[in-house]
Amino acid sequence: MRANCWLGKGTVDVLDVPEPRILNNHDAIIRITRTAICGSDLHLFNGFIPTMKKGDILGHEFMGEVVEVGREVKNLAVGDRVVVPFPIACGQCNACHDGAYSVCENSNPNAGLAEKILGHAPAGIFGYSHMLGGYPGGQAEYARVPFADVGPVKVPAGMDDEQVLFLSDILPTGYMGAEMCDISPGDVVAVWGAGPVGQFAIASAFLLGAERVIAIDRLPYRLQMAQEKSGAEPVNYAESDVREELLELTGGRGPDACIDAVGLEAHHSSPPAYAYDRAKQMTHLESDRPFALRQAIRNCRNGGTVSVIGVYGGFVDKFPMGSLMNRSLTLRAGQCHVQRYTKPLLERIQAGQLDPSFVITHRMGLDDAPSAFETFLNKEDECVKVVLTP
Amino acid sequence: MSTRLPHDDGQSRRSDSVERPGDSERRDLGERLSQGLSDQGAQRLGQQDGLGQDARSDPDGRFAQDRSADHDVPGGRSSPSGRRGQASRPGRPGAEFLRTALGWFSLGLGATEISAPRSLARTLGVHDSATNRSVLRLFGVREVAAGVVVFVSRRPERALWGRVAGDVLDLSALGLALSRYRFHPRSATRLSVATAAVVGCTVLDVIAARKQAAMTEAERRTAGSRHPAHATARATIRRSPAELYEAWHDFERLPRFMYHLDSVRVVDGHSHWKAKGPAGTRVEWDAEVVEDRPDSLIAWRSVNGSQIDNAGCVRFVPAPGDRGTEVHISLDYNAPGGPAAVAVAKLLGEEPGQQIADDLRRFKQLMEVGEIVRSEGSPAGARASNQLHQRPAQPLG
Ligand SMILES: NC(=O)c1ccc[n+]([C@@H]2O[C@H](COP(=O)([O-])OP(=O)(O)OC[C@H]3O[C@@H](n4cnc5c(N)ncnc54)[C@H](O)[C@@H]3O)[C@@H](O)[C@H]2O)c1
Ligand SMILES: [Zn+2]
Ligand SMILES: [Zn+2]
């Protein structure tokens, strides 16, 4: 089959690889009908996530049709259409029982590796490094899906792929980012990053009752999308001073909650500040560039909440701990516990409260994956989200 | 040369004085073991703290290490009774360290005396004459011999007393030189310093010899010459203690998740174990259950004459708040092949600590999801050695 493989920092290519087969009794094999490229894939592409190996199949946002099931699979049958959550979760351990699926205790066979780097191990994730399991991803024609009874969501007849594809990751992720803010009526929420994840965080903050949402980015077309599709107030950090703008927009209080939907590859509008972290990153003195996170913490109102859904891989420098501590902030974070949100969000989509397909700007074939990565990485051609069809 | 001391080791673990959940249970086991338990198994404990200083019941001393670690077994932390046992044997913990340190000192000094008598003579402040040089060389040979003997002797305390005699010889030579050089203040000062140093050495040699003499045969055998490994692992499993106890008690099925085991056969009370040892070696042993508390604890150990001495214990403690059961495993064994094999095994990721952690991960998977979870990068499932040699995340083909 054809699959988009990571071949090293900055290189992916679509190669012929063997077709997956059942390895565990709880597996299902899925013929992929739609798959997407995520901002998280860019961190892999740019070499910021350790323990990648040449030949790894990328992709953790995919859906398709069940073509084979393992002996123990009870909820799925051949022919079912499903969307697959990106974290692999067993449904049986204490973490899964608590709904913390992205830290499932059983789905990561390389937990020992992750423990060395992270202290304790998170769940396995499709196509997302060996420390997170060494599972092939879904930018391919077929994929093996472990714990098929736990993750995959059946797609009701009549809904098309593009309406539900993002239940695999970015819609629940944006939603969880907003949910972690414990929004109460009257709250103003600021969202750093107006990428696909940021777009859904903004939409979800409104769904959860935010009075106003401020979108911060430097790409006018993305800010415009946030404004037009969800009603956010844009702040372009390349053109204006974020702190000034936030103070102005909140009467000097600062936003009640701040969401970091940028992650470890943040840009900075000030060249010296950017150069500082970039240099440290290149010399491995820090692995992540936390501009957005620093700014979110410093600008959040006293006693407010900072919700981190942008991905970080290792260590950050100049973390404003004093600001966090002295001003009684709450910091929350996580890879999305997708399985927790798929049902309620599917219902919202069905009820017409939400149409996630608005973020799609590019539709391409699987074989175009390498150029799609470039387009998405460089934000060319007003790219927000690329969907691939195998 | 190892300076790893079982008792020092124990001490550092023992410094942990906070009472933890399960401590009383561990103490319980420790005490029962030290009270002589009941049977010959306990007899063979030999060196068990509080059980007695003599190793008569453990003639070849092969169990001394396992046992002294044994009351640590559940959870790897010692019980207060162990601490008491330690305190009742003053002075001995340092014996091995002192012995090896002195041995190395002798080798170093002897080598200098042989290879650089000239500069040594100058340092001592005696004439750099041919006679003095050959005397120094002779002393060097004696020193090296004394050092070697300390390491290889089966009765190190005798070797150490031999050193004391050598020290006396050194001192008389220095005394002679002192009287000859007493009108050369520079030389006299240097010689006095050297004399003071040798007096210091003599004192240490005497202490070491006395400490060694106080060490039992068994202790000596297990110190240094064998390389006991101690490994612990723990995990919380969302199943009842009874289910987990039952699954573990089915010894013949342990190889399902203990990958280094080839097979376990249970034949009237005893079990026969075949395993892959470190670095491709194969080992077999017979084991017996020494403690069996339904739904809470299983402790086993290899019987006399086994190729590999080992003892293990698994405890099942209800986790707070309906989270299932905390499983604590502890293993002690003398690795076949000694320290080199352990070092090689560590490089290959097969170190006992990792092995047992992987075993427990797989046990948890079996108990919670019913199978061992595999990925294309790690098709065998959780296994430390594979983590370093991942397949690419592509279907196996
Ligand atoms: N927690 C999760 O489960 C989860 C799931 C999916 C994605 N993510 C992460 O979310 C983040 C965003 O993903 P995406 O798909 O939207 O990626 P993306 O690259 O399309 O979007 C990132 C956006 O952040 C903007 N940005 C960069 N620096 C900024 C700064 N200093 N201030 C404000 N905005 C800045 C960029 O211009 C871009 O529009 C990534 O880190 C991704 O890994 C997390
Ligand atoms: Zn993603
Ligand atoms: Zn789980």
What is the structure about, briefly put?
The complex is a heterodimer of chains A (390) and B (397). By secondary structure, chain A is of the alpha/beta class.
Task: Provide the descriptors you would attach to this structure in a database record.
A: 390 residues; Quinone Oxidoreductase, Chain A, domain 1; Rossmann fold; 2 domains; 6-stranded parallel sheet; 13 helices; 18 strands; B: 397 residues; Alpha-D-Glucose-1,6-Bisphosphate, Chain A, domain 4; 7-stranded antiparallel sheet; 15 helices; binds nicotinamide-adenine-dinucleotide; binds zinc ion
Protein model, in words:
- The complex is a heterodimer of chains A (390) and B (397).
- Chain A has helices spanning 39-45, 94-97, 111-118, 161-164, 170-179, 196-207, 220-230, 242-249, 271-282, 291-299, 321-326, 338-350, 369-377; strands at 2-8, 11-16, 28-36, 56-57, 61-69, 81-84, 87-88, 124-125, 142-145, 153-154, 188-192, 212-217, 233-236, 257-260, 305-308, 330-333, 360-365, 385-389.
- The longest helix of chain A has 13 residues, at 338-350.
- The radius of gyration of chain A is 20 Å and the shape is globular.
- Chain A folds into 2 domains: 2-169 and 336-389, Medium-chain alcohol dehydrogenases, catalytic domain (Quinone Oxidoreductase, Chain A, domain 1, Alpha-Beta Complex); 171-333, NAD(P)-binding Rossmann-like Domain (Rossmann fold), CATH 3.40.50.720.
- Helices cover 29% and strands 22% of the residues of chain A.
- With 390 residues, chain A is an alpha/beta fold.
- The model of chain A has no long low-confidence stretch (mean pLDDT 96).
- Chain B is α+β, with helices and mostly antiparallel strands.
- Chain B folds into 2 domains: 94-214; 225-389, Alpha-D-Glucose-1,6-Bisphosphate, Chain A, domain 4 (2-Layer Sandwich), CATH 3.30.530.20.
- Helices cover 49% and strands 15% of the residues of chain B.
- A 7-stranded antiparallel beta sheet of chain B has the order 1-7-6-5-4-3-2, sandwiched between helices.
- In chain B, strand 4 and strand 5 form a beta hairpin.
- At the A-B interface, strand 4 and helix 3 of A face helix 14 of B.
- The structure holds nicotinamide-adenine-dinucleotide and zinc ion (2 copies).
- The site of one zinc ion has 6 residues of chain A, from loops.
- Residues 38-40, 42-43, 169-170, 173, 192-198, 216-219, 222, 237, 261-263, 266-268, 291-292, 309-311, 335-336 of chain A line the site of nicotinamide-adenine-dinucleotide (NAD).
